[in-house]
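Tokens for chain A. Residues wanted.
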């Protein structure tokens, strides 16, 4: 199993942050999925730093936590678009044939989330 689901996030705090996982849930080079305000997010740890971005591919809804994480790039399991988990930016778009098959639709950048650690908890700004 390449990823695990942390847990359903608790309610949003007064500062806009919500607990999404425990620090020990996210090991180096791993991907963990959680939820923020009903949106699936992907949490990863690269070089000791934690990152959070949307978990659903903007091309045709591939579930990125089921993809492959190579360094700071996650590869969509459906049509192989690639995103930088640190910035949410597309670093490699879908192949030309997939563009044609999808009526010209391509992947676009994903939202990233401010993240902080408090005690043993990972919090993300909703
Ligand atoms: S659904 Fe992710 S690249 Fe097509």
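Reply:
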């Amino acid at each position: 199993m390449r990823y695990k689901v942390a847990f359903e996030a608790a309610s949003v705090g007064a500062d806009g942050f919500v607990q999404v996982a425990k620090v020990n849930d996210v090991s180096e080079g791993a991907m963990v999925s959680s939820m923020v305000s009903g949106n699936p997010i992907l949490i990863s740890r690269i070089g000791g730093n934690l990152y959070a971005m949307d978990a659903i591919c903007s091309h045709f809804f591939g579930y990125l936590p089921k993809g492959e994480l190579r360094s700071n790039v996650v590869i969509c399991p459906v049509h192989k678009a690639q995103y930088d988990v640190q910035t949410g930016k597309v670093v490699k778009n879908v192949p030309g044939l997939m563009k044609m098959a999808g009526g010209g639709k391509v992947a676009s950048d994903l939202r990233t989330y401010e993240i902080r650690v408090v005690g043993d908890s990972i919090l993300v700004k909703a």
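The two ends are 27 Å apart (CA to CA). The chain has a mean pLDDT of 90.
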